[in-house]
Specification:
Layout lengths: L2 E4 L8 E4 L4 E3 L3 E6 L6 H11 L3 E6 L1 H4 L4 H9 L1 H19 L3 E5 L6 H9 L3 E6 L9 H4 L4 E4 L5 H7 L5 E3 L21 E6 L4 H13 L5 E4 L22 H9 L1 E6 L16 H8 L4 E4 L2 H6 L7 E3 L2 H13 L1 H15 L5 H25 L1
Parallel strand pairs: 4-5, 4-6, 6-7, 7-8, 8-9, 10-11, 10-12, 12-13, 13-14
Antiparallel strand pairs: 1-2, 2-3
Helix pairs in contact: 1-14, 8-12, 10-13
């Protein structure tokens, strides 16, 4: 007969049902700390974990650090130590109040080593879902303190495992947000742009996109994202929209573009790594868009090429394939439909949250069984 076991602390939320072969978690409490703005990875993962049966309390970074005007940004910089202290105090207070098994963050900006050590003493497993190749954005002493790091960058695995340990570092891909990134009901062959790129500026991106703009002077090409103002005197100027796409409108932009280009930051002076995939890799097909993606083995492991997406290796190939797919609508739309079927729902943050749960829950179950029997 199954027996119900509980942690020794009576206010713990995880109950365990044990039989001869397995221990099954019924409910996991978590505190999620980060930015929960619309479209954020934190929002997607938190909702996905709720769908896995987790109970999640959110501690919002923006409550302490949000700034819009120049004056507010200056004030934020001046008040960073105080705001950071309040953010960390709120994380600790939430954990003391809810007694979670897990504290999950995305990247962990502003979370101190002192806080992580404090949560360790509270027997809270700390998990950092790290979606950026700039490891230097977070103090190394803080990264070292997490119980688990789950990187979205496959090229970081060997390095992180060599610096930490194999059993503390895992890999889970980026994803898309089901509530935001979905095929537009008004899509299906109605287009407002020929070519779209959505992403922040970088010199590498400008070098790749400039020949594309020059090759299609009569095409409607739009570039959305931050940091493009310095290029307004360049050949890119006619394509630069000048602002980001609000998360809830991204699907509309992607769905109504004939060709969506996906490329990444490129190599920079401050990084030895280069992205293979990004959130856009999953968002474009999820929105029903046709995707031309920078070529690499990782994106080919995610999609069939050219059945579900197509790829390019350089600017010349980007121009040639863009021209081909602008002229072959039926083939382009069939590829987009197959790419959508591949991505949805497999590449959603709901699915990524299930992967995160599959990594973390066995660790909690082992601890729960040990605590219950001690």
């Amino acid at each position: 007969m199954a027996r119900r076991l509980r942690y020794l602390a009576s206010d713990r939320a995880v109950a365990w049902v044990e039989d001869e072969n397995r221990v099954v978690g019924l409910s996991v409490r978590a505190v999620a700390a980060g930015s929960f703005a619309q479209g954020s990875t934190e929002a997607g993962l938190s909702q996905g974990l709720r769908e896995q049966g987790w109970l999640v309390e959110e501690v919002d970074f923006a409550r302490h650090f949000e700034a819009r005007t120049l004056a507010e940004r200056v004030e934020r910089r001046l008040r960073w130590p105080q705001n950071k202290a309040r953010f960390n105090a709120d994380i600790v207070a939430a954990c003391e109040r809810t007694r979670p098994e897990v504290m999950l963050t995305v990247k962990g900006i502003g979370i101190s080593r002192k806080t992580l050590d404090r949560l360790g003493r509270l027997n809270v497993r700390t998990v950092n879902f790290f979606p950026d190749y700039y490891l230097t954005d977070v103090p190394w002493e803080a990264l070292q303190a997490y119980s688990n790091i789950i990187t979205t960058k496959s090229f970081q695995l060997d390095y992180l495992r060599s610096q930490l340990s194999v059993d503390r570092v895992d890999f889970v891909h980026h994803g898309y947000l089901p509530l935001l990134h979905r095929a537009s009901p008004t899509g299906g062959g109605t287009y407002t742009a020929d070519i779209v790129y959505i992403g922040n500026a970088s010199p590498y991106k400008a070098r790749m996109l400039t020949p594309l703009v020059n090759a299609f002077p009569r095409a409607i090409m739009r570039i959305y994202g931050g940091g493009w103002d310095p290029y307004r005197t360049s050949p890119l100027s006619s394509a630069i929209v000048g602002h980001r796409v609000a998360p809830d409108f991204m699907a509309d932009v992607i769905s109504h573009a004939r060709v969506n280009v996906a490329l990444h930051m490129g190599l920079t002076e401050s990084s030895i790594w280069e992205d293979f995939v990004s959130t856009r890799t999953f968002e474009i097909p999820a929105c029903g868009g046709f995707m031309l993606h920078i070529d690499n083995e990782e994106v080919r492991s995610l999609y069939q090429v050219p059945e579900e997406i197509d790829v390019f290796a350089n600017a010349a190939e980007l121009i040639a394939k863009t021209r081909y797919y602008l002229e072959h609508a039926h083939e382009r739309e069939a590829i987009a439909a197959r790419g959508h079927a591949r991505a949805v729902p497999a590449y959603s943050y709901s699915s990524r949250a299930a992967e995160v749960a599959a990594i973390i829950e066995p660790l909690l179950k082992s601890r729960g069984r040990a605590d219950a029997r001690s």
